[in-house]
Amino acid sequence: MSANASMEEFEALLNESFEMDTPEEGSVVKGKVIAIEAGQAIIDVGYKMEGRVDLKEFANPGEAPEIAAGDEVEVFLRQVENARGEAVISREMARREEAWDRLEKAYADELRVEGAIFGRVKGGFTVDLGGAVAFLPGSQVDVRPVRDAGPLMGLKQPFQILKMDRRRGNIVVSRRAILEESRAEQRAEVIGNLHEGQAVDGVVKNITEYGAFVDLGGVDGLLHVTDMAWRRVNHPSEILSIGETVKVQVIKINKETHRISLGMKQLQEDPWDLVGAKYPLSSVHTGRVTNITDYGAFVELEPGVEGLVHVSEMSWTKKNVHPGKIVSTSQEVEVMVLEIDGAKRRVSLGLKQTMRNPWEVFAEQFPEGTEVEGEVKNITEFGLFIGLEGDIDGMVHLSDLSWDERGEDAIQNYRKGDMVSAVVSEVDVEKERISLSIKALGGDKFAEAVGGVKRGSIITVEVTAIEDGGIEVEYEGMKSFIRRSDLSRDRAEQRPERFSVGNKIDVRVTNVDSKTRRLGLSIKAREIAEEKEAVAQYGSSDSGASLGDILGAALKGDE
Can you give the pTM of this predicted structure? Predict the structure, then answer.
């Protein structure tokens, strides 16, 4: 009986084992470590099958394997039996399958996954996600470019799955998305504790041309260059350095964009509050040139207070010259306060006002009628420009070049660079004009010669030339011409040839023309005047006496 029973039990067990399905190749099965030898773990996967797995497949990247006999593990069954009668199994592939299932669920639920960066590849890094290898692009490592990823290697940390394709075996992850999310939470918390006008401490993280970014404890604020100091700051690096701790004031917070504007100068006393009292109008101060533009130069009176010297207020004499040719950056200059606009925070300064007006100085030193000397600077169609003392110019008009020549002819005698003497004829300080005269150097010969001569005067002249149309005569060095018709009252005597050079004759002045510098002379007018005088004195023709009698009597009276 017992033998039959044992046979029945054996038959039942055999049938049961036949009825059990042998696991399919390509599936994950559970196994038990029965031994560890030669760097491999021998694993019993059941079904009368054993397989070998290299110990390194049980280790995480950068870590030692943790496996011992008796441990239960899941392995991937690649082949039921190989040539040696052993099952071909893989712990790594099992972990990968397990990881993919877990990662697909996390991707669908938009959950973070844990992994460790373990290698560098072109364009980024490789990340172990607990059995599955993912790609981490370089741009997704941090919110800012990372120069050295060494400290991040092998460190377990959270990642966000951006994309995955199980069929192709591709997974793309991001560390930056996690940092930005936590950064946004931190920013919101920090910003929630800040309010406009609050003074806080921060650390300078970055410096640019237009300002500096200051870390306020998880959130950055922009400190613009114009809010660093009341004075002009050409570059933020002049007063700040990276890593420096500074006290700043929150000027503005944008709740939507989380942008924070900061200021340093707002925590300092505004120098403009005292400008009106310290710099009254017309007062003179010493300042430093900080900037030069096409329209003028900025002069710093004190830190935070700058004024503009407009190009028109820079020099009395240098017109249409670039300010850079008059002053230079960092030069100390004396300036006068011309205007203050506290509302616009503007001070208008003058440089030339600290020096005397050179035209006023010239007028004092060289009054009208004074003789001066200078170099011919320019020759124009209307006269000469002469360089004078004080770096100013005077002008000699064409009409003031010569008494005897036309201005157009006289100007041909001068060249640039010639040294000439002239007389100051007028100084107009307001119009900044100085009129000179070269012809006045020897005085006005014509005026001196005819000073006592007036129309109707009888003067004695000397004949200097005989011409067909009349005769040329001279009086006190002044030339005049008597026309043929004025040579005699008697037409028969109107012959130029009856005179000789050197003859002295009496003539009557018919005109004194100061403009043309000519005397109008006539012998005929003198004879007519003498006749009228004789008639008036000795009688008239109505008395019966003839003209000959009257003139004879007049001549006898003269004798």
Answer: 0.44
